[in-house]
Specification:
Layout: E1 10-13, H1 28-36, E2 41-42, H2 43-50, H3 54-66, E3 70-73, H4 86-98
Antiparallel strand pairs: 1-2, 1-3
C-alpha cells in the first residue's frame, strides 16, 4: 500500500476512460469511489461515504491507482497572508458536517 495516501490526499477519477472492459471486475466499492471522485475528493470523505475504515479505503484507492482509474494529489496549499478561498472553506465545512 502507498505511503503517500493520507486523510487529506485528494482523489479524482481519471476522465475519458469510460466504462472499460476491466471495470466489470471491480468491486462495488471501487465503482462507488469512481462515481464519487468525478470531482476531486479527500480520502477521508471517500472513507466516510463508503462507511469503511481509512485502511480499507486506502487499499481500494490503491487498487484503482494501479489500474490507472484515479489520480491523486496533495491538497491545495494555503499561503499565510493570502485571503482564504471562501468557497473552498465552505466546501470543507460542508464535508465535515457530512461526516
Amino acid at each position: 500500500m502507498r505511503g503517500d495516501l493520507t486523510l487529506i490526499t485528494v482523489i479524482a477519477t481519471v476522465a475519458g476512460l469510460g466504462d472499460q472492459q476491466g471495470d466489470r471486475n471491480l468491486q462495488p466499492e471501487h465503482r462507488l469511489i469512481l462515481k464519487q471522485c468525478r470531482t476531486p475528493v479527500a480520502l477521508a470523505e471517500v472513507s466516510a461515504m463508503l462507511r469503511q475504515p481509512i485502511a480499507v479505503t486506502k487499499i481500494l484507492v490503491d487498487d484503482l491507482l494501479g489500474i490507472g482509474r484515479v489520480a491523486i494529489r496533495p491538497p491545495l496549499i494555503v499561503v499565510a497572508g493570502e485571503e482564504p478561498d471562501l468557497i473552498l472553506l465552505q466546501a470543507v465545512k460542508d464535508a465535515l458536517l457530512r461526516l
